[in-house]
Amino acid sequence: MRDFVARPEHGIVWISGASSGIGRALALKLAGEGYKVAVTARNHEKLLELQTEAHGLSGSIIVLDGDVTNAEDMEHTVAAIEYQHGNLAMAVLNAGVYLPVDGAHLKHEDFNQSFAVNLSGVVNCLIPAVRHMKLKGQGQIAIVSSVTGYGGLPTSAAYGATKAALINMAESLKFDFDKLGIRIQIVNPGFVDTEATRQNQFPMPNLISPEVAADEIAAGLKSLAFEINFPKSFTYKLKLLQLLPYGLYFKAINRFTGWGEKPKVSHQPAPHPAE
Q: Per its UniProt record, what InterPro entries does this chain match (predicted)?
């Protein structure tokens, strides 16, 4: 049972964060392969546009409203899938935000929002999904993390922390999920051309489109691999960098991103909020 691979005949695929970027492209990809795909996001209008675009495909798109930061919303989402649309066979937990962090001007909200969406948001989806899947003794869950979870990168103090946590979470849960018949995978994309990555202030090598990312993920979901990472020419380099001593790692990342050439930040203290 641990090698369960969800097929269209097994039931519904649920994708969170499907209004744009990777989630949107993956929803169209899987609908084109005959899957019935339930999509959630905070932007209802964009989900309706996605549903319209899927008309004529061999599968279909079901629009369900919901905010991953609201645990009750996610309970209702899974209940709606199970009791109104069919068996939840696969969940792709993709919703996320990227808020660049400036180490010279740290803000609580950058960390709090990143943790609420990227980490707690996954947990809010995971708990009801697993509850339903374990009753059937089968299911498939893919958590979308990022290669920034491998190691620290400039501006990624909040985002990277959440993605590293997701990788560890998936690794840890696999031991129990194998016994429940639930197959868990972690998805670690490199740089994908989305609204989020366009905020990066450094060159992004091997940048790919959301459609290429969706193709890679769709293929990985049908494989038995625990990790789905791409493009390999980039992700393997980052994995190798993790083997370096920290002194060499930081030098390599500074050179790789061009961050070492940027001017030094101002050391002028910001006013304390209580002043």
A: NAD(P)-bd_dom_sf, SDR_fam
